[in-house]
Amino acid sequence: MSSANLTRQETAARSAGVTVHTIRVELDLFDAQNQERPGFGVTTTLMFDATASETWIDFIGESVNRVTINGAEQPVAYDGARIAVTGLAASNTVVVEGVGLYSRSGEGLHRFVDPVDGETYLYTQYEPADSRRVMACFEQPDMKAAFTFVVRAPLGWHVLSNQSAVSVDEHDGAQTVEFAPTLPLSSYITSVAAGPYHRVDATWTRGEQSVALGVLCRPSLARFLEEDEIIEVTRQGLDFFTDSFDFPYPWGKYDQIFVPEYNLGAMENPGLVTFTEAYLSRGAATDAQRGGRANTILHEMAHMWFGDLVTMRWWDDLWLKESFADYMGAHASVAATRFTDAWVRFAANRKAWAYQQDQLPTTHPIVADITDLEAAKLNFDGITYAKGASVLKQLVAFVGEEQFFEGARRYFAAHAYGNTTLDDLLVQLEEASGRDLRAWSTAWLETSGVSALSLEESADGERMLVQTDPRPHRLRVGLYNLTDGCLSLREKVDLDIADERTPVAFEEADLVLINDDDLTYAKARIDERSLASVEKALSTLEPLPRALVWSSLWNSTRDGELAAARYLAIVGAHAPAEENIGLLSGVLANAAYAVGHFVSDAARTAERTAWLETTWTALSAADAGSDAQLSWARAFAAASAYDDARAEHVRAILDGDAPEGLTVDPDLRWALLTALRTTEHATGDDVSDELERDGTASGRTASLTALWSKPSIANRTVAWHAAWEDLSLSNDHLSATINGVRAGGRRDLIADLDEGYFERILGAWQDRSIELARRLVVGLFPASDDLEQVDAWLAANGSAPAALRRLVIEQRDHLARDLRVRAAQSQLGEG
Length: 831
Hints:
By secondary structure, the protein is α+β, with helices and mostly antiparallel strands. Helices cover 43% and strands 21% of the residues.
């Protein structure tokens, strides 16, 4: 194992022998604009007590040039990831001087040059263990310290960190900015950003507390910032969490910065939250997209308490911050903002991520067994986020909302600025609610898998609610009547179930909706009578039950219990009438996936043509300027990459003849052009012309996908090799190249490269960063017609890193599901 991959056991031993107090980090970023300079100077001063005579300090950089312990210089003992320090006293001051490396992978200190203005923009991203790419530190969450950052940068730049600046010294074209010390923080949530960013300032005031707010982005994106709405949601969130948690926001200021080539949606660095620029739409956005951004703003804000104020001791309890933040993002959206449909979108879309992850062979309990950092990196998944939030929603229903929040308030008061485990939270929730939560924890937090709930009737007429993988559920069954083509609620029945089979006594209904109101976490099946009613009148349901039906239909299709053709027919009949754009977006994505993955080989060409026609017809009929029109336009562009029957209409939209009211922004233009390129209706010159029109960073990234989408074996082969071998590709450019290789599902152009994939993945994992290696392993996995090659690799590579094997096993399972579901279509009555 590489010394960079820290284990739970050794980090626990280190924190038992070392108590860190303060860390001072001095960064010299003055020459960052010189792209020939790969690195930056960094001096770290760590003050800590020790009962051990020796330990190590984490740092991944170009070099460690000098190490001083308690005033005495020590020979540098550095293996590229760990600096050995020996001869420690009871109290120690260690100074490490080194050179860090700028990143192009989004890990550590990322450097980006905007092609619009030629300026350089920097930001850091550390979770779970990349602060050591910028400073010498103790890279584990339970070793909190007060951090002081000092940054030298060019004059005219905004320089930011977790705290506000306390001094700025300007000299010889440089500024040296020293920030106030932080309150105790784990290293992974410290943060620095620097560059000539565009900034908008505001203030939030509540009683005697006043918090300075800042919203930043690159100047070339300033016109898309929508800062008024971002600030409004921020203020609403601070109001809500201040009242709910009874613990004032503790981190001083609240800056939010949108940054380029970001690997995540956002990151909760206290006082300096970072967001992907994908949340800034370039000209056209649906209200559902804005709702998603608001949800993320509130998710990260919840982390200021769940995760930053009180932090898990080790990554086993990652759920202590991510599950709660995911729950709070939706809860606060509904309680405090105009985006009151957050739970509707959660039920249909977010939980689908959890259901998918929980059916993989690599699924894990919400409270996971994380033995090392590589495993932690891959556990930022649908279990930790969406399943955890789903289970917390069930817990709130179980103990009561006020009792839940009272438990949280006690938790913050008891453990502020400290580290915790599962038991620390359960104690507070039990005291606040008066309920024993140990059985609940065992059933929901400490086991894996998802139950499926269905209604069965025996030959003698007895009705049973049946569940696979039995767990205790408190749920609600909705009974709906179909009258004059409309489904209306007749009554709801509350149930507590725990066994595999539970007798039920409610009367028959045209639609029986198990888990109405989405109170529990389970795949709820729809019986045949209910399915027939849904086929007739799905659109007439209210938003939340409609979301639950869409979710049920999709899960049944994924599991090979509902014919893909029947699912697509329901989408064709009811998606054009779907008024909730969050639901519509998810349904359109699922339908496109079903065509590409679950329809039988024999029927796929016809279904692709039918799906293209569905998208075009709905686009043509949608209200001018509506969110639905924009959603269908995006679906039409995606479908046009697989079938060229509407190529002339794609070209017409690009030439200015778009449906009335449709905003054809740069991103939609690139999607349409890439579809033409993929189907041989556009040339390299067309791509060059579009790049001339949109020479932004996003345009350059999109142009790579368009160029590599040319449907020839030679072109796709060159792109495939570039993905593996061109080490100059940034994270986003690597993904764009991979997207070009996969464009249009043209397996016939790349099937001969399958063997090369399995020859390369182990080396890529060893030589590339985890983020870039993950994109290669997942993005280029061969979607072949059998499992022979992947099974052979797994059999021959039992000693490969566990995190790599996990990714390959998951991709194998996705492929196996595709093959299994496609094979089942004839028995399900396809066609």
